[in-house]
From TrEMBL:
Superkingdom as given in the UniProt entry: Bacteria
Name the UniProt record assigns to this protein: Uncharacterized protein
Compositional bias of kind Acidic residues: 43-55
Region (Disordered): 35-55
Species in which this protein is naturally found: Bifidobacterium biavatii DSM 23969
Length: 55
């Protein structure tokens, strides 16, 4: 048999973990953007902080 189920499962778990991390990062960005909209006076500082984190 060429396909080893455990290797496939491990690979899928890794892919799911990667996507979960990406989702968490996007949720954090959404929260930052919502906070920036709620307080326009601080939006520039929030935007700079978000830009620094994305690199």
């Amino acid at each position: 048999m060429g396909i080893e189920p455990l290797k496939v499962i491990d690979r899928l778990k890794g892919m799911i973990a990667d996507q979960s991390l990406r989702i968490a990062m996007l949720e954090a960005q959404v929260e930052q953007l919502q906070a920036a909209q709620a307080s326009p006076s601080e939006s520039e500082a929030d935007a700079e902080a978000a830009d620094g984190e994305s690199r």
